[in-house]
Amino acid sequence: MLTKTSKLYLRFLFALCICIFHGSNAQALTIWLQSQIDNFAIDHPNVTTLNESIWIKEANPGTITNLNGLIQLKRIKGYLRISENKTLLNLSGLDSLSQVDEELSILDNEQLISIEALSQVNYVKRLNIYLNRALKNLKGLERIQIIESSVTIVDNDKLESLQGLNNLRYIELYLSINDNLILRNMEGLNQLKVVGDEFNIWNNKALESLNGLDQLQTISNELTIQANPRLTSLKALSNLINLGGNLIIDLNISLESLSGLENLKSTLLTGIQIANCNRLSNCAFNGICDYLNGEATPVINLYNNECGCDNIFELENACERFRNEAVNTDCKLLIYPNPVNNSILIKKKSVHQIIKRIEIIDNIGKVLLRSDRNENFLNVNKLPRGTYNIRIMIDDEVETLRFLKK
């Protein structure tokens, strides 16, 4: 089975394949020399609307240094793809462009620092910003309000801000914001209200909050927030009401609260996975608890979180306390199942605790089984039926509990 990470990469690779093969049955103009740009007005006199796609991709490193010769273009009826131009610093020359009927893709331009020349563009169907190592923001895209396909913003190492997308209100398909190393928040998406398919926020190493998503109300499919190690808050999602797929929150090791998800409509959720967030101890909020107690059978996976949000039993107890306005999680060392047939499992008070020793002791004090490994289970299937004690040394504490072997 594919992991979520694999699925995200396959989704992105699929998007790139669309970029490469989209419009393969239509004529496309490939520009690989600076002279083609410089002579564009001569070769295409008085052409302001181009009835074909353009792919600007230099033949050799440093071949294309500017796009000034394209100044007459106002509309491209196909796609505009600008990729693998090693010394291109900006998009000056596209200052008159207002519409790209298919996708606008800016891919792997190593020294590109600005796309502000796109400031007249008010329509593109699909937007891909990928692998531009020097690009710091998206200023130049302010006139775009609606994307009728998808938006992919991936692997831009110096991207500090999403400023430039300030007026984007609606994305018909998916939105992926992944692998942007110094992006700290979502400021720039402040007007976004609807994502019509999946929304992926994945592996942004410096991301601390989702500020900027304060107006987001609807995600029609899955929301995945995964592998953002500095993310501490989801509060900016407080206006998110409609989530029509799974909620996946995974590998966000600094996240301590799900505050911000209070207003989710539980009837639209199809599943919840909250995992590997080892500071997260409270998952009990209205939308999640309502989904747990709804008429449909809930699909919920909780694991490797802090005590209080580490399994379905803890969530059930936390939701009960939430309804009664109690806040004390009262986490205790637990063993289950009890009675047991095969393996007995140990639920620690905290994921940070280390099990040093487990001993199974009979009623006269004899040690029958022992494990000195940091494992939260012990196989007891060879024990005869009866009642036993299990002594657990965890950190510097020792606790003894009783269980019944069936």
Write a structural description.
- The protein is elongated, with a radius of gyration of 27 Å.
- 38% of the residues are buried.
- It has 406 residues and is an alpha/beta fold.
- It folds into 2 domains: 4-240, Leucine-rich repeat, LRR (right-handed beta-alpha superhelix); 334-405, Immunoglobulin-like.
- The protein is built from 5 helices and 26 strands.
- The strands form 4 sheets. Strands 1, 2, 3, 4, 5, 6, 7, 9, 11, 13, 15, 17, 18 and 19 form a 14-stranded parallel β-sheet that branches.
Q: Kindly identify the CATH topology of the largest domain.
A: Leucine-rich repeat, LRR (right-handed beta-alpha superhelix)
Cα separation of the termini: 35 Å
Poorly predicted runs are 1-5, 18-26
Describe the main β-sheet briefly. 14 strands, parallel
Supply Rg: 27 Å
Q: What is the domain tally?
A: 2
Q: Assign the CATH class of the largest domain.
A: Alpha Beta
Number of helices: 5
Number of strands: 26
Helix content: 10-25%
How does the overall form come out from the CA principal axes? elongated
Residue-averaged pLDDT: 90
CATH architecture of the largest domain: Alpha-Beta Horseshoe
Q: Beta-strand percentage?
A: 25-35%
User: Helix/strand-derived class?
Assistant: alpha/beta
Structure, briefly:
The protein has 406 residues and is an alpha/beta fold. It contains 5 helices and 26 strands.
Task: Give me the secondary-structure topology.
Layout (H helix, E strand, L loop, with lengths): L3 H18 L6 E4 L2 H5 L1 H4 L5 E2 L2 E4 L18 E2 L3 E4 L15 E9 L15 E8 L15 E2 L3 E4 L15 E2 L3 E4 L15 E2 L3 E4 L15 E2 L3 E4 L15 E2 L2 E5 L20 E5 L10 H7 L7 E4 L8 H12 L10 E3 L6 E5 L7 E7 L5 E5 L5 E3 L6 E9 L2 E9 L1
Parallel strand pairs: 1-3, 2-4, 3-5, 4-6, 5-6, 6-7, 7-9, 8-10, 9-11, 10-12, 11-13, 12-14, 13-15, 14-16, 15-17, 17-18, 18-19
Antiparallel strand pairs: 20-21, 21-24, 22-23, 22-25, 25-26
